[in-house]
Amino acid sequence: MIISILFAAFGLATASPSSVIPRARGTESNLFPISGSPRWTTLAGASGSLPLSNSTLRPTKVTNRCPFSYKNAPDGTFSLKSHYPKGSYKPSVDPCGGVSFYAPGPSSVDLSDAKEALLSYSVFFPSTFEYVKGGKLPGLYGGNDENTAVSCSGGRKDTTCFSARLMWRANGAGELYLYLPPFDDPRFAANEKLCSLPNSICDASFGISVNRGSYSFPAGQWTTIAERVKLNDFGEANGEIELFVNGESVINVSGIIIRDSSAGRIRGIQVQSFFGGSSTDWATPKDQDLYFANFGAAIIDRI
C-alpha cells in the first residue's frame, strides 16, 4: 500500500495484476528433466527453438467444431489458446469447447522410432478459473498403426492403442489419466495393479485415474509438465509412465503393459482439452480459457 502511494505521488505507473504473473516457468531443466536426443521445443530462447504453430505441431484429425487459436496468455507468453464456452463439456455436444487434435510434431523427431520418449509443455490456469469437476489435458498416445492409435479415449478401450493424458479435477487436483490394454483380458492382468495405487480409480467404462491429487494446477500460475513413456517389451509387463511437474517427479508407475505387439509405437501428442466427463454436471458455468506453451518432445531410447 505504501509503495503504491509513493508511486502515485511521484506520478509513476504501477504494474497491473496481469503484468506481474510469472512468465511461463518452463525452463529446459523442468521441460526436459531427463535428457534425450533428438528433441524439439517451442521454449523461447532455447537452442534450436521452433515456433509454436501448426507448422511445428502438424495437427491431424482436428475437431474443427472446437476451434483453437494462437494468442498471448495474460502474461504475454505466446500460447495455444483453448476456449471453453459456457455450458460446454465433451467435444461431441454443443456448444463445442476446448481443443482436440493429434500432433506428431516435427518430422525431425519421429516418435514412432522411440522405445522411450518425453513430452513437455506448460499450461496456464487464469486466476478466476472455475475447475468444476475436472477436464482433460494433453498427453502422449500411440498404437499399432496411425488409425488404431487414435481409438483409445471417450470410453473406447482397445488392446491395440493407448493414451496417457492428464486431468485436472475439482479444486485443481491433478492426475494421470490412462487408457491401456484392459486388465480384464488375462494377457494384460498386470495393469490391474494401477487400481490399488493411492488415490487411483479404475472406471469400468472409461480411463484409469492414477494418483489423483499428487500434484495440482494452481489458478493464476503456469504449471510445467513433462511426461515420460517407456514402452514394454512385447509379451512383458515392463512398461513405465512417469510424470514430472515443475521439474519434480510426482507419479511413477512401472511393470505395466502399454502395447500388445511389437507394432505398438508412440505416435505423438494427443492435444486434447475439454471439461468432462460426459454429462452436463461437468460443464463450465461460464466462458473460460486455458493457455498452453513450451510444447516439446524428446527421444530417450530407440526401438
Characterization of the model:
Residues 76-295 form the Polysaccharide lyase domain. It comes from Agaricus bisporus var. burnettii (strain JB137-S8 / ATCC MYA-4627 / FGSC 10392) (White button mushroom). Keywords: Signal. Pfam families: Polysacc_lyase_14 (PF21294). Residues 1-15 form the signal peptide. The structure is a single chain. By secondary structure, the chain is mostly beta strands. The protein has a single domain (44-302), classed as Jelly Rolls, CATH 2.60.120. Helix content is 5%, strand content 39%. It contains 3 helices and 15 strands. The chain has helices spanning 2-9, 28-31, 54-57; strands at 39-41, 69-72, 78-84, 99-103, 114-125, 134-143, 161-169, 173-179, 201-202, 208-216, 221-230, 239-245, 248-256, 265-273, 288-302. The strands form 2 sheets. Strands 1, 2, 3, 5, 11, 12, 13 and 15 form an 8-stranded antiparallel sheet that branches. A 7-stranded antiparallel sheet has the order 4-14-6-7-8-10-9, with no helix packed on it. Strand 9 (201-202) and strand 10 (208-216) form a beta hairpin. The longest helix has 8 residues, at 2-9. The chain starts with a helix and ends with a strand. The relative contact order is 0.25. Mean pLDDT is 92; it is low at 1-23.
